[in-house]
Write a structure and sequence with these properties.
- The protein has 326 residues and is α+β, with helices and mostly antiparallel strands.
- It has 8 helices and 12 strands.
- A 12-stranded mixed beta sheet has the order 1-2-3-4-5-12-6-11-10-9-8-7, sandwiched between helices.
- Strand 4, helix 3 and strand 5 form a beta-alpha-beta unit.
- Helix 1 (51-64) runs antiparallel to helix 2 and helix 3 (122-134) packs across helix 4 (146-160).
- The longest helix has 15 residues, at 146-160.
- The chain is globular and about 65 Å long.
- The two termini are 19 Å apart.
């Protein structure tokens, strides 16, 4: 998996030799010729390690529904601009399902993170699981819309015997009419800068540990990215104390996604999260976003209620499954 595979290369299809089959060597039959290997099954799934090749083939498909494809759009943009090692030392792999000249689905994985899928039918989930299993992949999990994630988790168990456990259900929201909180807490939003690196790193670490991403996420790298690209806003009190934060993704395919809304526990219940979310949502619209999106954990009724009061409406429910370690 660490070598480059061309854009249209299909997965390999290893074939096992039945037990007891005699081996024929050149000395046994000096004039025998080996038949050509069987071609890989023509199920339409393709793979590449080249993000530019992936986007060249799937860009129109991803842009056709930017909300449902928001994660793949933002992940590939980060790979494209910051390099293949931006998420870790292992080489990412990306792929698509092609029938004729049409793209029907996409997937990607940036180790050590789970597999991310576009919406799939049950049959498509099964064929993809079969191909990845045949390659010997050991996936840590899958994240996709609820129906797709569930279908793939079930298919993965059929093909590998590896059971899954639902880790999180989260809902994708889209901003309708922005309704800032009223009353709004005193203070203002401001973009973070280099002087905020220590605070931002600490808050990223706290947030990632709270959502179970701490072991696979480098908080300092996230802080550096947020500062360098102006992607994080603090809400600060009139006295200049930072009390909450919200991040956003870059503008891609007309959409910006709000990420990492976080208020330290001892400062919650004062309206700071609503204020900073409204501020970054307003800024996203001002930057030209046609869609402003965010995900919320469905187990957190407080955050879901807050986002709906701000004007966000449900788009789709997603699910993240963890797979048992081999």
């Amino acid at each position: 998996m660490h070598s480059y595979e061309p854009r249209n290369t299909h997965f390999d299809d290893p074939r096992a030799v039945p037990a007891g089959t005699p081996r024929v060597t050149p000395s046994d039959e000096p004039h025998a010729t080996q038949p050509p290997p069987d071609p890989p099954p023509d199920d339409g799934w393709n793979v590449t390690h080249d993000v530019e090749a992936f986007l060249d083939r799937t860009g129109d498909f991803l842009h056709s529904q930017p909300a449902l494809h928001t994660v793949q759009l933002t992940v590939t943009e980060r790979l494209r601009t910051r390099g293949a090692d931006t998420y870790g030392s292992e080489v990412p792999f990306l792929g698509w399902l092609e029938e004729g000249d049409d793209i029907h689905a996409t997937y990607l994985r940036t180790p050590p993170h789970p597999l991310v899928l576009s919406p799939l039918t049950t049959a498509q989930a099964d064929t993809l699981a079969a191909r990845l299993a045949a390659l010997g992949h050991q996936l840590p999990g899958v994240d996709a819309d609820h129906a797709t994630a569930t279908a793939f988790a079930e298919a993965w168990q059929r093909h590998t015997g590896v059971a899954s456990m639902l880790r999180r259900r989260h809902r994708l929201y889209r901003l309708g009419t922005l309704t800032p909180p009223s009353p709004c807490p005193a203070g203002r939003g401001r973009r973070v800068d280099a002087a905020d690196r220590g605070q931002l790193t600490s808050w990223y670490s706290e947030f990632m540990n709270a959502v179970g991403e701490g072991p696979v996420t480098d908080a300092a790298s996230l802080a550096d990215l947020g500062i360098s690209r102006g992607l994080v806003t603090f809400w600060e009190t009139p006295e200049g104390a930072a009390v909450s934060m919200a991040g956003v993704t870059p503008l891609i395919a007309g959409q910006i996604r709000v990420t990492t809304v976080y208020t330290p526990a001892h400062l919650r219940g004062r309206g700071y999260a609503g204020a900073v979310t409204a501020e970054v949502s307003r800024a996203a619209l001002a930057a030209g976003a046609q869609e402003v999106l965010l995900f919320a954990d469905l187990s957190n009724s407080t955050s879901n209620g807050l986002y709906q009061r701000l004007g966000y409406t449900p788009v789709e429910d997603f699910a993240a499954y963890d797979f048992e370690a081999g």
